[in-house]
């Protein structure tokens, strides 16, 4: 079985966040979702558990970071092409997300980023692996 990742993210309004990611083309797995959590399916091996802040607090004694003021993590997703990077980030911005940094264009690598409704930062990156190898 391929290794999987489940990223747990605190959210202020679960329905708003589910709606946002639905507009980006992602679905949720109802088997692992309820009124306090939603399992966002990013790929066959990548999932984000969107947890209401009270539910998230059940997993940690630490304070929840205010992602509008601090950055604890940057989530990076690969894309199959430069066009796919633009499609996903443009969809995020149209769905109510906000920009998070400048476009990065190194020729062999291209990336853009956005913030979701809870201010979590998502980077979307395409890289030409053959050209990247030639850079080193």
Task: Give a brief outline of the structure.
The chain is α+β, with helices and mostly antiparallel strands and 136 residues long.
Detailed description of the structure:
It is a single chain. By secondary structure, this protein is α+β, with helices and mostly antiparallel strands. The protein folds into two domains: 1-64, 2,3-Dihydroxybiphenyl 1,2-Dioxygenase, domain 1 (Roll), CATH 3.10.180.10; 67-136, 2,3-Dihydroxybiphenyl 1,2-Dioxygenase, domain 1. It has four helices and nine strands; from the N terminus they run βαβββαβαββββα.
Q: Determine the number of helices (DSSP H or I, runs of at least 4 residues).
A: 4
* CATH fold-level name of the largest domain: 2,3-Dihydroxybiphenyl 1,2-Dioxygenase, domain 1
Report the oligomer.
single chain
Task: Please report the distance between the alpha carbons of the first and last residues.
Answer: 33 Å
CATH superfamily of the largest domain: 2,3-Dihydroxybiphenyl 1,2-Dioxygenase, domain 1
H-E order: EHEEEHEHEEEEH
Q: Care to count the β-strands?
A: 9
Can you give the mean pLDDT? 94
């Amino acid at each position: 079985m391929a290794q999987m990742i489940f990223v747990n993210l605190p959210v202020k309004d679960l329905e708003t966040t589910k709606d946002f990611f639905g507009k980006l083309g992602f679905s949720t797995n109802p088997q692992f979702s309820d009124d306090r959590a939603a399992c966002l399916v990013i790929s066959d091996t990548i999932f984000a558990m969107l947890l209401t802040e009270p539910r998230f607090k059940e997993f940690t004694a630490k304070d929840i970071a205010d992602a509008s003021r601090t950055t604890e993590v940057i989530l990076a997703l690969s894309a199959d092409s430069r066009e796919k990077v633009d499609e996903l980030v443009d969809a995020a911005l149209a769905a109510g997300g906000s920009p998070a940094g400048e476009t990065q264009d190194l020729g062999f690598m291209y990336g853009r980023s956005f913030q979701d409704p809870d201010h979590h930062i998502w980077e979307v990156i395409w890289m030409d692996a053959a050209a990247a190898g030639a850079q080193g």
